[in-house]
## 1
Amino acid sequence: MDIVYIRDLQIQTIIGIYDWEREVRQTVSVDLEMAADIRRAAETDNIEYALNYKAVSKRIIAHVENRSALLVESLAEEIAALVRDEFNVPWLRLRLSKPGALRGARDVGLIIERGEKPA
Ligand SMILES: Nc1nc2c(c(=O)[nH]1)N=C([C@H](O)[C@@H](O)CO)CN2
């Protein structure tokens, strides 16, 4: 199994459970690992056969910027579902973090894995 990844994709969005968090955009950071078979793209040197991380990033940004979730859990599940459905990704691991959201911690958030890992 090969992995195409995106690290520390920073997006501004409304997220959080507190009143002040409903009024100001905060930064969330996305790390994403996606199962892929990169061999055909490598053999042909053709983006048509690649899992295009630029296209995935643009889709995630569009979704997150237009959302105003309360919980990081909701946003993480939505991102995982759209990446799997729209880019035909069989398995992914997603870390969604809120830098600076908790005093004393660099960031907080969660890590989820969805789908089945190909052999
Ligand atoms: N498991 C979670 N815990 C908390 C969340 C969350 O989204 N998931 N959110 C908050 C607040 O919005 C926090 O980020 C503000 O500092 C608290 N706990």
## 2
Amino acid sequence: MQPLSTNRATVSPPAGADQPFIAARFACLALATVCFSAAAGLEGSKMGQPLVAALPGTLAAAALAYRAKPALALTPPLTLDDVSIKEAPGKGEGLFARRRIEKGEFVMDYLGEEMDDAAVNERYRDLIEARYLLGLRGPLGLDQTWVDAVNPEKSNLGRYINHGRPASLRKVRQRFPDRRLRFFAARDLEVGDELTFDYGDDYWLGRENELRE
Ligand SMILES: C[S@@+](CC[C@H](N)C(=O)[O-])C[C@H]1O[C@@H](n2cnc3c(N)ncnc32)[C@H](O)[C@@H]1O
């Protein structure tokens, strides 16, 4: 887990920061395709053998390609130089752009206290009280890690991002090397635009009356 305090670093990320990851993904896929084609093109009538031989490498390259985007090092997260915390009518406080944020730019992760089911049950008798709690499912949805950003001292600016639909941020769920939710700009944001992500329908069950899209 990264440091949890609100990030006030002054470094601003360059625009279009997720383009290298898209390039990496395509490069890996291209490599996988080349390996596969080379193996499949080997002489002989037993096509099955080279195909089987190429399979592990192809799968590994495809997995790497799939994971490359979120797992590679990113530009620094946005700070209070780039965004501000302001009143968002009907939603409490929210996060707003202080400068133009370009589509594809890395915004930040959702950081907070990492908890297991037992810790969550101990903290909250009813999950409706858990307004800053995010569940990150593992492979096949078998286990779940919780991130609770209720404490501003143990979370980051991600806790101020309100729900929106359509959202101005795109979510990327990272599972490797650690589990986290990352935000990228889904479109160009102008100064004053609100940063939002889609919380999902489940979040609003029992809270329907509060919702302002
Ligand atoms: C993670 S917090 C977001 C930051 C919060 N607005 C604040 O002031 O700290 C989630 C809570 O914000 C409010 N909220 C977020 N998006 C909303 C929306 N679209 N409509 C109404 N309330 C919203 C709800 O109270 C929700 O439980």
## 3
Amino acid sequence: MSDSAQAEKIAEKIIDGKAFAAGLRERVGAAVAKLNAEHGLTPGLAVVLVGEDPASQVYVRNKAKQTKEAGMASFEHRLPDTTSQEELLALVKQLNEDPSVHGILVQLPLPKQIDSAAVLDTIDPAKDVDGFHVINAGRLATGQDALVPCTPLGCLMLLKDRLGDLSGKHAVVLGRSNIVGKPMAQLLLGANCTVTIAHSRTKDLPAECRRADILVAAVGRPEMVRGDWIAPGATVIDVGINRIEGADGKNRLVGDVAFEEAVKVAGAITPVPGGVGPMTIACLLANTLTAACRAKGLPAPEL
Ligand SMILES: NC(=O)C1=CN([C@@H]2O[C@H](COP(=O)(O)OP(=O)(O)OC[C@H]3O[C@@H](n4cnc5c(N)ncnc54)[C@H](OP(=O)(O)O)[C@@H]3O)[C@@H](O)[C@H]2O)C=CC1
Ligand SMILES: Nc1nc(=O)c2c([nH]1)NC[C@@H]1CN(c3ccc(C(=O)N[C@@H](CCC(=O)O)C(=O)O)cc3)C=[N+]21
């Protein structure tokens, strides 16, 4: 095969999350404009950042910018690293009561003096646009209307867009965190996949992965999934966001999958950056729109 034919084949395999997210944000923006014109409602998202973690600051800035671009109100709350649990809970309760706020996101991780689970469970479940509250986790697990965690929701959208019906496919989810792995497995189960959840105690990770039609990697280990862990033609979703030092001494962003190896074997694969990350923020906006509609007793638009 010629070099250009080879390059074309690889390009076809890449799932362009950045482009899909841009389209989703446009659809959210159009729905927000309609909601505003017909009902005088402007969805509002409050983002709370505790401490000065530079990566978190970048995400929070991006979220605020994209929230405004979609025509929604953005409220940013920055608290010092030394904030107490009581102070943070007081702010969350104030946001719960504020009628202009439809979505609340408390950026994770939180400083160690704060009990994250207690904070997340204080957020009004109807405003929990991260979908991390136990009520929303329970609703998702029991097949009821829930606010669904943004990252897995974005992964599911990319999978359905690429593969159509997912029924009967064998999905392997690497990672079992409450914010990615577990809700991802629930969503895939809801889409009628046969689901395996693998983690740090799984015996033969490469063998489990090779059985996957759909492989979702969310472990936080740079390039852990090698090309020979992937079944030929499988669809690979790389959730990992890892900053590592490149050969040139500069920082670069890599996923949990060794992309160059994997792209040769996989049928389709998300890149890092430009894959799942942008979908997470677009889904956050979609969830804020959903929360605002439900607060007014309106049906959430199909996006
Ligand atoms: N793109 C995006 O928008 C987002 C990206 N991320 C990224 O996704 C990744 C995962 O995030 P998150 O779920 O929060 O991470 P956690 O650290 O909470 O969970 C990691 C999971 O991976 C498992 N694991 C860790 N090491 C191994 C290993 N060597 N072999 C097998 N399993 C392993 C752990 O197993 P065990 O339970 O046994 O410890 C755990 O279940 C990170 O890179 C994070 O940065 C996260 C959120 C959003
Ligand atoms: N309450 C809470 N909710 C979250 O959803 C949440 C959180 N806390 N804490 C941190 C993680 C991480 N996260 C990302 C969002 C967007 C990108 C993203 O847009 N990434 C770009 C690249 C960004 C870059 O260059 O650094 C991309 O992959 O193309 C990545 C990661 C949300 N998180």
## 4
Amino acid sequence: MSAQILAGKNFAAQIKENTKRDIDVLKRDYDIIPGLAVIIVGENPASQVYVANKHRACAEIGIYSEVIHMPASIGKDALLDKIASLNENDKIHGILVQLPLPDAMKADEAEILNAIDPAKDVDGFHPVNVGKLTIGDEHLVPCTPAGCMKMLEMAGIGIAGKQAVVIGRSNIVGKPMFHLLLARNATVTVCHSRTGNLAAIARQADILVAAVGKPNFVTKDMVKPGAVVIDVGINRLDGKLVGDVDFEQVKSVAGAITPVPGGVGLLTIAMLLSNTVKAACLIHQVN
Ligand SMILES: Nc1nc(=O)c2c([nH]1)NC[C@@H]1CN(c3ccc(C(=O)N[C@@H](CCC(=O)O)C(=O)O)cc3)C=[N+]21
């Protein structure tokens, strides 16, 4: 028996189609064009590819988008000024600062994310939106975890009453994933680098989410037969893109599994588009 492969392409296409329909209504009935600004600092090649993909996805469905490229040598103050002007810009409903920031600016990350107007925070990284998520207000949810939840929902995979295990506790994936699964009545365990007996805990999962950033970390022995395995990892190994799950091994045990590439990564961008439209609706008090 082999696992059902949860291909991101079809799910992402569906989300984009729904989002485009909302955009068309906003334009036709309210004369509003949703706008996204993506700030990229420095020359990280992977970031440049992601940002170009986001820009293209916006154009495809009718979101106005601006890419603001700043040199790595830019000071924190210049970046904060740029964010302040985007906060005031009526054409812009979503603001995203691509991570990781250059090393020289890493210490300022919290201050920079804090400077984004929470109403325009389409990454869901601002402390106000993080706090809202913890109390069940899911207005602007980080795109990757939101994409994982959307995929489970669209695939008809039930969550309530299930054992869910999240491997990884980052602010952008692991922690929001915990809150989202808990809000849908899963029993959620979060594992991390200091967890003892991680394999035994992972093996209890009906839904296993791997977000550790270590290539092929999840092996067959860590997966309960029939489990749903969601691979959030994006790692480069020998020039190839691989996830956190040893796909070839695990697909023979799992009930369903997301591939890398071609899995939840594709939903990340789709959810960014959806968040931008949500932000535009809220800012203009539509719906
Ligand atoms: N402020 C901020 N927000 C982010 O959401 C953000 C970020 N910074 N920094 C980097 C990570 C990573 N990320 C991905 C987006 C799309 C794919 C994606 O489309 N993946 C495809 C193709 C990947 C490829 O071929 O390179 C796939 O998995 O099939 C992956 C990863 C967003 N991130």
